[in-house]
Amino acid sequence: MKKIRVPMGTSTQVVRKAWKKNDVTQKWNESALAKKLAARRLKANMNDFDRFKLRRAKQSFNKVVRLRFLKLKSISKKAAKKAQPEKSEKKTAPKKSECSK
C-alpha cells in the first residue's frame, strides 16, 4: 500500500477525496492483515453451535486428507517393493548343537 500525500491541517473533505481517489478501503480489505483481523473477529463472535459445526467440518476434512495420504503411502510402498530387487537368502551360522558334534 502506498502513502497518500495530504498536507498537514487539510480539511476532512480533502482527506476523504484522496481516500476515495486512492481506493484505500478496497486495498485495506484485500490486505493480509485485514483478512486476519476479520477471521479473528468472526471466530470471537462464534456461538457454541458454530464452534461445533466448525469442529465437525475440520474432522471430516482431515479424515479425507488422512485417507488420501494413506492410500498414496500404500501405493508408494508397493512401488518401492516392486522396484527393490529380491534379496537372496541370508546365510545363517550353524546352531551351537551342530558345531559341537
Automatic annotation (TrEMBL):
Q: Carries keyword Repressor?
A: no
Could you tell me where the Basic and acidic residues compositional bias lies? 83-101
User: Which organism is the protein's source?
Assistant: Rhipicephalus microplus (Cattle tick)
An example of a Gene Ontology cellular component annotation for this protein is: cytosolic large ribosomal subunit
Q: What's this protein's name?
A: Putative large subunit ribosomal protein l14e
Its keywords, alphabetically, are: Ribonucleoprotein, Ribosomal protein
Domain Large ribosomal subunit protein eL14: residue ranges:
3-60
GO terms (BP aspect) = ribosomal large subunit biogenesis; translation
Name the segments for region: Disordered.
76-101
User: So which domain of life are we looking at?
Assistant: Eukaryota
Instruction: Please provide, alphabetically and separated by semicolons, the GO molecular function terms listed in this UniProt record.
Output: RNA binding; structural constituent of ribosome
Q: Write down the Pfam families for this protein, in alphabetical order.
A: Ribosomal_L14e (PF01929)
